[in-house]
Amino acid sequence: MPKLASDLGNTINKSRKALPNSNIRAFDEKISAIPGIIKLTIGEPDLATPDHVKEAAIRDIKKDDSHYAPGAGKPELLDAVSKYLDRSLGVHYDPNSEVCITVGVTGALNAVCMALLNPGEKILVPTPVWGVYFGIIEMAGGVPVQIDTSKDGFILTADHLREVMENEGKGAKAIILTDTSNPTGRVYSKKTLEDLAKVIKEYHLYSVSDEIYAELTYGGAKHYSLSQIIPDRNILMSGLSKDFAMTGWRIGYIAGPKEVMGTIIKINSFLITSVTDNVQAAAVEALNNGNQDPINSKNTYERRLHIIQSGLEKNGFKMATPEGAFYIFAKIPEKFGSDDVKFATDLAKKAKVGLTPGSYFGKGGAGYVRLSYASSDENLRESVKRITKYINNL
C-alpha cells in the first residue's frame, strides 16, 4: 500500500480533516462484533422494496437505459414528485424549475446547505436530531446552532425559537426542521408549525424541512409541512428510503421556490452529475403506482411500536409519545444514571441488544437511547425479554 508523500502530510484541508466521524455508525460497527446481538441501532427498514418497484428498475435496465440523465432528474420523475406533493400536501411545484432529484436526503442536504450558506453563517438545528446534519453544515462552511428541545417534549416552540434568535442564534440564515422526527418520533401539529412560521418570517429565515418520514405517522397524528404554510421560504427535502424501503437505492428530492432551486440544481449536478437511470425509473413507479405501499409499511411499524413501547415502559424507560417514523427515544431508568454511552455499551455486551446512545444526536440527548423498531416482531419481542432480564438482574 502506498504511503502519502512526506511533503504532503500537512496539506489536507484542516477543517474537513477535523470533521468528526459518525458516532452512530461507529457504535453500530463496534457492537456488530458481539455474537448473537440484536441490533436496533440503524434506521434501516427490514421490509423489502415492493416487487412492482423492483420490476420497474429491471425493465429499465433491460431496455438499455444507461446514459446520463438530466442534472435535475428525469422529466418523468420530476413530474411524479410534483404530482405526489400536490396530492399529499396540496402544494404545487413546477417540475421544470422547482424540483431536483438527489442521492437521498443526505445528498439533498449537502446541495441545500452549499446553496444557502456563506462561510460563517449560522443555521439553527433543533435537537436531538440525526447527527449527520452537523458535519454537512460545517462542510458547507456554516455554523450549526443547536436548540435543545428536551424540556418541551422534543417539539420546538415558537417562544423558544424567538428566544434563540435574540441570543445565540442572532443573525442566523435558516432553520432545519425534521418532521416527523428522527430520533424522537415526534410529529409537529399544524398549529405549532403555524406559530413557528410566524417567527421564521419575522426574522427573515429560510426554513428547510426534512420530511423523509412524512408517510409514517400513528395514533391519529397527521403530517403537515411548512411548505403548506410558508411555501415562499421553505425548501422541502424528502425521498423514498423509508416509505418504500429503498434506503440502498439512494433516491431523494428537493422542492422549493424557483429562485433558489436554480442554484440548488446547479450544485447538485456538480456533486453527482445525475442520479442512476434505473433508480429513477423505480422511483417513478413507486410514486405513481405505489399509494398502498407506505400504508402497508405504516401498519407494520405501528404494530411493532406497540410491542416495544410497552416492554420498555414496564422496565422503567420514559419517553415522549412517539407518533411517527420508526424510533423510540427513551430516557434510561434512573438507577443507571445519565451516561447513555456506558449504558448502551453494557446492554450490548451483557444483554446482546444494540441501542444507540442518545447523546450522539446532539443537545438534549444525554441520558437517552434511540431504538429503531424497523426490525422483525420476533427480534423486538426477544429484545424486550433480554432487556427485562438485564434490568432485573441489576
Automatic annotation (TrEMBL):
Keyword DNA damage attached: no
UniProt similarity note: Belongs to the class-I pyridoxal-phosphate-dependent aminotransferase family.
Name the record gives this protein: Aminotransferase
Residue ranges of every copy of the Aminotransferase class I/classII large domain listed in the record: 37-387
Presence of keyword Cell division: no
Enzyme Commission no: 2.6.1.-
A GO molecular function held by the record: transaminase activity
Key words, A-Z: Aminotransferase, Pyridoxal phosphate, Transferase
Organism this protein belongs to: Lactobacillus acetotolerans
Enzyme class, broadest EC rank: transferase
Highest taxon in the source lineage: Bacteria
Cofactor or coenzyme needed: pyridoxal 5'-phosphate
Protein's GO biological process: amino acid metabolic process
Pfam families xref list: Aminotran_1_2 (PF00155)
